[in-house]
Structure formats: C-alpha cells, structure tokens
C-alpha cells in the first residue's frame, strides 16, 4: 500500500513533507484558512481637528458591523441581540463623548466605554445578565476589528467539515468554533505539545504543526489529504491518490475496531506485570469516551477547562458538581490536577500581567498559592467530591518543599472547615505532585516522604531540563524526551518513588509514545496516562511484551549517552 | 405626554431576546419614550439600558411617551410588552 502511494506523487498535486506529527490519523477534506491579525490600539491623545474624523471612523465601524451581524442573525438569534447592542444609543453616546472629552481615538474610547458597561453588568444580581458581559466583549471585539480593518471571527464562515489551516490557534480561538466541523488541524507555528496538538489528540483527529510557509501553499477550498501517519500533506490530489487514501482511512478505522476488542482485558505483560493505563481528560465528555476505550481510571483531570470556558472564577458549587460527576464516572481513580494556567493558557476574565518569560513566570501552583481564596475554593470542591469516588489531588509545577507544605497546609484548612460544617469527604484522600521541573527531580527523594504519588509531566520536564521552548520552531528538533538526561531523570524518579513505596505515573506525551513503551515499562512505571484514543494501542503493546525483557532494554538504554544510541537500542532511527 | 402601567410577563424577565425586540420596536418610534421601573428611568431605545436594569418577570412598569405620535407609539409598546415580546 505504502509503495503504491509513493508511485502516485505526480503532476498537479503538491506534496509537503512534515517532520513531526502532533496527532496521528488521516483526514481528507477541503481547506479552511484562518485569517487572524493582531489588534493594535493606540492610547495617544488626538488632535482637536481629528475628533470628527474619529467619530466618523466609529460610525463606519458600526455600519460595517451591522452588515456582518445582519447576515449572521439569519442563522442564529443571538446575533439579533448583538445587532441591537452595536446600534445602541447609550454605547454610541458614551464612545462619542469619550472621543471628545478624553481626546482619544475611536478604539481607545470604545474600550473605555465597554469597560464601563461591563462594570455595570457585572454589578447586576441576576446571574444570567452578568453573563451577558461575554456578549458585550464580543461586540467590542467586532467593532475593534472593523475599526482596524481586520476580520472579527475568522471561524465565522466555518459551517461544513473542513481541515483547518492557521498560523497558530490559541485556546480562546479553539473555543470559538464547532470542533465537530474540524477534520484535522494544520498550523504554521506551534510544537507537538502545543494547545492545538493536545486538543487534536483529545478529539482523535490528525494534527500537523510547525508546517513552515503552509499558509502560502494552500488556497481556501483546496482539497487536502493530510497524512499524519507519514507526515505528509497532499494538496489537490488526483483521483487515484484520493481513492487510495480513502481505502487507507477505512483500513485504519477497522484496525481501531480490532483494538477495541481489548477493552475489557487488563494491561498486563506476558510475564504478569500489570500496569494502569489511564486517561488524560479535559471534560466529562472525555471521561465517557475514555471509558469506551477501556481506561483504568483518570490519571490527569485538567481542571483548567472549568476556569477557561467560563466568564468568572468557577464557584465551589460549580466545581463540586463537575468533580462529583467525574468521580462517579471514573471508577478506581480520578486524579485532579489543581489549576494549571499561565504559560500559554490565560483567562478571559482575569488580567495577567505581560511576562517576558511566561513559562518561567507566574503559573500553576504559583498562582494558586498567591490567590489563596481561589485555591481553597478549588480544594474544598475537590474534597467534597471525594465522598463520591476515588479522588486524588495533584499539585502542578512544584519546585520546593515550601510550596508543597504550603499547599498541604491549605488543604488541611479546607478539611477542618468541612469538618466544622460536618460535610463528608474522603479522610484518606491521596495527595501527589507533578514532577515536571529539574528541581523536583533533584529533591524527589525528599518529596517521596511527604506525598502519596508522583506523576511525571514529561512535556514540561523535557522543556525545562533541556532549556528548549517547545513552541519555538527553530529549536524544536532539540526538544526530545529520548535525551539521556530526561531518561535518567525518569529512572531516578521511579526508583525514588518505589523505594518509598509510592506509585509513579506519567501523564506527558511521552507516556503515549509507542516507541518509548517498552523502556518505560522496563523502568517500572506504574501508571501510563494518555489521551483516551491511545489507550487501545498501548494496551496491545503492553500485552505483547514481557517485563523481564523490557527491564533489560531499559537498563541498556539508560547507559547510553547520546540520543542516537538510545534510538539504536530501542530499534528505531 | 401619555403613559400606561403594565407588567413584564417574560418568564426569565427582560433578558437579551425580549430586550432586543423591545429596543428594535422602540427605535422605530418617533416619540421620546421612558420606562419607569421603581426609581429607575430606562430608555427602551437602548438595549444595554434595558438589560442593565435586569427587570424580572412580574415587575410593574410604567411606559411614558411624548411626541407627535405618542398615542400610537404607547399603544404599540404596551401591546408588545403584554404579548411577551416575541417569546
């Protein structure tokens, strides 16, 4: 089959080779190009003679927005409301008076007027009305975009299945379109652990990222085959190629059907070593899908989604209801990672200061320990949910004993408060940390004495150990978890855990890398946590290996001092 | 000036959809219109003004119109509110 495909690369069809695959699979469909431009607002004082000009600029932006919204309102009634808001006299008066009085341009005046409105709406007791601030923010965006002559929602015209081609996609971008329509992602920037990659894996669709110059190679509406099995993009393929790929796609569907028959069987090696295959999830929906794939529990519950798909910090009750449902669904294990934002994940309702180095900045546990009330709200919600299942708490990005102890102290406070109110929770709730910083690897023996489990986050660990920004294309080749320093760190963490009788899991990309499976099995990893879609393939792998043999391989690998030698021992190049 | 008392009957109060209908209708009227809700005066030509008042179901309101077409306008507005503003 593969050979046939090679012979067919010809004439009009354009082929692009991609080195790294973010999420595997084959997709065939039309290209949808995402056109996104950054806004640039000036806050300078304007000249008196420019006042009229700014007012007419604003009026023109309103007129353009009205035209856009009238077209949208035909399909969705919500845009009727936006239409009225954008024509609103209160808004108009406020913007015009700000242009005149504050002597600022239309963009800056609009922003100020919107900020006032949002303040009013946020003060309303009615929760429904408070949530309308999202609509106000949306019309603000639309007007700003029209003022600057850029497209507002670049996904607006996405109303049929397509392969999304974009420069890059942020979490708020991906929240603004219907993922049911997406057959696959191709982005010009971003690495294999970027947001898009994780999203694609979760959805079980292919993604190719860091594809240089792709936006200049593809026209909207081109037919594309993305072969994320072999790292290829075929633009406007001929009919023969199309039908061959269509067959291959069907073949893959059959393969996954075969693997799904392993669903009820345990992940146990031929010589009897049993490991846990857990799921990384970002929603209740994910848990349900992971159960279908035969998961042994949830190894990583990304609590961020509760904060990110929201208009305010989620309340204790909101969180409790979700955690409770998750706990009831997850069976033997639900490991909830406390809020892990910052870095590349921001919140629409909380202003983060711009940082020079966000990945070395205010993120994850650092935010939680600073915003104690918010953190305690989350901990209390998790504790309450622990009455309904096997819940474990996991702290991200720990670098010091002080942080761990402070987090545990806050947890104790929450427990006491619940005791005082006679609210039940699991008194034996297990507490663990992510091992994802070099500091935590070096202190791992000490941490092992104060926690119940470890989970190695290989994405960040690799990035921090090797000092390689995983989103930077130029150096993405340097980002490699098969680096001996990463492998030896993993071995060190597993040994320290086992010496102290605690379990060690892994929830980074590496845990789902089939090429690394034997090595990790041999190192003694207890739990592999991954996107649910990868579970069947991994189970198949584990069931066809022997622990004894894997141990020998692992030992040999850890002696090696170059990546190439590591590859050689593992039998790939 | 003419005025008339009425009640908001929309189950979720004057939320986005009915507010949008009301603003659309009021904007078409020539008269100056004010809706009095307790102490508050609302301009029904502004959806933001209507929504930020967060008027609940069952609230008593007074609609005031003044201008050449005040009688017709008042009748139109009252009828729309009492018929649930398209809900």
From TrEMBL, chain B:
GO cellular component: cytoplasm
SUPFAM superfamilies, per database record: HPr-like
BP term (GO), one: phosphoenolpyruvate-dependent sugar phosphotransferase system
Compartments where found: Cytoplasm
Entries under Pfam families matching the protein: PTS-HPr
Record domain HPr: where: 1-87
Record's keyword terms, sorted: Cytoplasm, Phosphotransferase system
Function per UniProt: General (non sugar-specific) component of the phosphoenolpyruvate-dependent sugar phosphotransferase system (sugar PTS). This major carbohydrate active-transport system catalyzes the phosphorylation of incoming sugar substrates concomitantly with their translocation across the cell membrane. The phosphoryl group from phosphoenolpyruvate (PEP) is transferred to the phosphoryl carrier protein HPr by enzyme I. Phospho-HPr then transfers it to the PTS EIIA domain.
Protein name: Phosphocarrier protein HPr
């Amino acid at each position: 089959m593969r050979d046939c495909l090679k012979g067919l690369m010809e004439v009009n069809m354009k082929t692009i080779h991609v080195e790294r695959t973010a999420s595997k699979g084959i997709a065939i469909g039309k290209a949808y190009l995402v056109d996104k431009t950054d806004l640039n607002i000036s806050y300078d004082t304007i000249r008196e003679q420019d006042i009229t000009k700014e007012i007419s600029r604003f009026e023109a932006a309103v007129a353009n927005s009205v035209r856009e919204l009238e077209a949208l309102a035909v399909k969705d009634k919500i845009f009727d409301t936006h239409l009225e808001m954008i024509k609103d006299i209160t808004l108009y008066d406020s913007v015009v008076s700000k242009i005149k009085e504050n002597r600022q341009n239309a963009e800056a005046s609009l922003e100020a007027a919107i900020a006032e409105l949002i303040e009013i709406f946020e003060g309303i007791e009615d929760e429904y009305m408070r949530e309308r601030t999202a609509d106000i923010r949306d019309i603000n965006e639309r007007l700003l975009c029209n003022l600057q002559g850029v497209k507002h929602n670049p996904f607006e015209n996405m109303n049929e299945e397509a392969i999304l081609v974009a420069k890059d996609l942020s979490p708020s971008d991906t929240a603004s379109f219907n993922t049911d329509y997406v057959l696959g992602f191709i982005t010009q920037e971003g690495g294999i652990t970027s947001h898009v990659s994780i999203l694609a894996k979760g959805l079980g669709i292919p993604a190719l990222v860091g594809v240089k110059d792709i936006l200049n190679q593809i026209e909207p509406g081109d037919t594309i085959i993305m072969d994320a099995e072999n790292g290829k993009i075929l633009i406007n393929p001929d009919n023969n190629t199309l039908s061959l790929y269509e067959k291959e796609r069907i073949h893959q569907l059959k393969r996954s059907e075969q693997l799904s028959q392993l669903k009820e069987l345990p992940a146990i090696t031929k010589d009897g070593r049993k490991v846990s295959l857990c799921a990384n999830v970002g929603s209740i929906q994910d848990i349900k899908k992971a159960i279908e794939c035969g998961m042994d529990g949830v190894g990583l519950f990304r609590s961020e989604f509760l904060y990110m798909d929201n208009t305010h910090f989620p309340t204790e009750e909101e969180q409790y209801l979700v955690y409770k449902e998750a706990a009831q669904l997850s069976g033997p294990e639900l490991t909830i990672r406390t809020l892990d934002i910052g870095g590349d994940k921001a919140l629409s309702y909380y202003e983060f200061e711009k940082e020079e180095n966000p990945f070395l900045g205010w993120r994850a546990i650092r935010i939680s320990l600073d915003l104690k009330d918010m953190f305690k709200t989350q901990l209390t919600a998790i504790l309450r949910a622990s009455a309904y299942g096997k819940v474990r708490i996991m702290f991200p990005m720990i670098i010091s004993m002080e942080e761990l102890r402070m987090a545990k102290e806050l947890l104790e406070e929450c427990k006491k408060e619940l005791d005082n109110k006679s609210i039940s929770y699991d008194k034996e709730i297990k507490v663990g940390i992510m091992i994802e910083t070099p500091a935590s690897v070096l202190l791992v023996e000490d941490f092992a004495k104060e926690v119940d489990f470890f989970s190695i986050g290989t994405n960040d660990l690799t990035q921090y150990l090797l000092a390689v920004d995983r989103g930077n294309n130029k150096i993405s080749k340097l980002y490699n978890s098969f680096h001996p320093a990463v492998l030896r760190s993993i071995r060190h963490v597993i040994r320290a855990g086992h010496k102290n009788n605690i379990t060690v899991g892994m929830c980074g990309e590496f845990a789902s890398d089939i090429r690394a499976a034997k090595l990790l099995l041999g190192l003694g990893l207890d739990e592999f946590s991954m996107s649910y879609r990868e579970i069947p393939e991994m189970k198949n792998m584990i069931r066809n290996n022997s622990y004894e043999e894997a141990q020998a391989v692992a030992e040999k690998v850890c002696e090696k001092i170059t990546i190439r030698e590591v590859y050689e021992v593992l039998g790939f190049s | 000036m003419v005025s008339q008392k009425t009640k908001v009957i929309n189950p979720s109060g004057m939320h986005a959809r009915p507010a949008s209908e009301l603003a659309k209708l009021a904007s078409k009227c020539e008269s100056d219109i004010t809706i009095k809700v307790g102490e508050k005066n609302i301009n029904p030509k502004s959806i933001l003004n209507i929504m930020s008042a967060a008027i609940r179901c069952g609230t008593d309101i007074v609609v005031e119109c003044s201008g050449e077409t005040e009688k017709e306008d008042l009748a139109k507005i009252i009828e729309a509110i009492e018929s649930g503003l398209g809900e």
